[in-house]
Amino acid sequence: MTVTLTLPSPAKLNLFLHINGRRDDGYHELQTLFQFLDYGDELSFTLRDDDQLALEPSLPGVPDEDNLIIRAARLLAAHSDKAVPGVTIAINKRLPMGGGLGGGSSNAATVLLALNHLWQLDLEIDTLASLGLQLGADVPVFVRGTAAWAEGVGEILTPAMPPEDWFVVLKPSCDINTAKIFSQEGLTRDTPRIKIAPAFEGDASRYRNDCEDVVCRLYPEVRKSLDWLSQFGPARLTGTGACIFGRFPTESAARIIWESKPSGIKGFVAKGVNHSPLHKKLTELK
Fold first, then answer.
1. Is this model's pTM higher than 0.85 or not?
2. Cis peptide leading into residue 90 (ω within 30°)
3. pLDDT tens, residue by residue, 44-59
4. What pLDDT sits at residue 106?
5. Has domain 166-273 been given CATH number 1.10.3210.10?
6. Domain 4-160: which topology?
């Protein structure tokens, strides 16, 4: 009997992103607040009769061997102390690549959790998060599945409960290279550290995205979209972009703004959630 498991791979937002310094190894120390969205990719896993790990379809411009989906599957298989069957992984890609929404990291986390279940490895979340960190700094938050205050390079996580508002997310027509942004001399790298606090309570000006000015200078499309969305309330870049978001108290308020967006700009409306849709789905399977 063919065994297939279909799971969500949700997006995330960086509700703010402060860069506190640069380490000797070139990585940046940061503080950020991650929240999930009830919107994202979808991955389907079908066990095979052989030991092959296959991706369908391949993503344009990304060789399968470099894709975080296959890398996560190979990493988990190598960590297992028993032989595991192969799997075909089908992806319904809804999140834009290079958007700052964590699509690749989320995909990797969904693979780790899904195959831990299908292969009956029974690995603890801490182990899976540690494996995920080998794939990228954002993978552990998706593995753990709880909105989180993050420090270090993004791997030191403390559960958080920001308001579960609605968001308009816009994707300007440009692709942003994260390494290029973090290498810019004009990037703010000395924002003072702040203590964990409920997000956006009190003085909202304390919170910003330190990458925003550099990104807007290099990518005018981002500045244009940010200026437009800012007419309706505070708008901000997520990660290093290119996506920007504005928060609204209700779905209807968000959809009114969405319907008035300029032509040619892609995006979506979604609800912020503090518990990952992936983990909710996995809980239903137990």
1. yes
2. no
3. 999 999 999 999 998 8
4. 98
5. no
6. Ribosomal Protein S5; domain 2 (3.30.230)
